[in-house]
Amino acid sequence: MKTNRLRKSLLGMTLSVSLFASMTVMAAPHAAHAATSNTVSTASTSASTKAGSIISLGKRYLGVPYKFGSQKGTTRTFDCSSFTQYVYGQYGITLPRSSKEQSQVGTYVPRNQLQPGDLVFFYSPIHHVGIYIGNGKVMHTYGSPGVTITDMNSGWWSTHYKTARRVIK
C-alpha cells in the first residue's frame, strides 16, 4: 500500500516538473524576442538600472560627514564633488574632481527633463554638485548634515539651481 502511494507521489512530482519545464521552454522565445526587438528601450533600461545602482550606493553614505577638500577615494568624509566622483566611479563613470569641471562633462539636461542619476549643479559660478534622485530630490553633501537628501524645488536650493548634466549612458 505504501509502495503504491510512493509511486503515485513520484509520478505526480515528475509530471509537475515536466509540465513546468515545458512551460518555461515555450515562454522563453517570446521573452528573448521582446528584449531584442527594441534596442532603445534596452539602452534606456540599462541607464536607469545604472542610475538606480548609483543612487542606492550613494544612500549607503547618508550621514557621512562633510569635509571641504576630502581626498579622492576616501569614504570617511566627502565634499560635494568627491562624493559624486566616488559614487559614479564605482560604476565606471570617471568624473573630474571639482564641481565646476563636472558641470562640463556629459550632456546638458533642461530642468524639466531631469532623470534619476543626472548631476545637478548650484550657485553661480558653479561650486556645488549633487545627484538627482527623482521627485524633485537631490542627494548631496554639505555642512553639518553631511551626505543628505534635499528637496531642490523649494527654498534656497530652488533659487540657486544652475544646470544639470547627464553622464549615464
UniProtKB/TrEMBL annotation:
UniProt KW keywords: Hydrolase, Protease, Signal, Thiol protease
Superkingdom of origin: Bacteria
PROSITE patterns, per database record: NLPC_P60
UniProt KW Heme keyword: no
Domain NlpC/P60: 48-168
Stored Pfam families: NLPC_P60
InterPro entries attached to this UniProt entry: NLP_P60_dom, Papain-like_cys_pep_sf, Peptidase_C40
Signal sequence extent: 1-27
Protein family (similarity comment): Belongs to the peptidase C40 family.
Protein name: NlpC/P60 family protein
Source species: Paenibacillus plantarum
Taxonomic lineage from the root: Bacteria, Bacillati, Bacillota, Bacilli, Bacillales
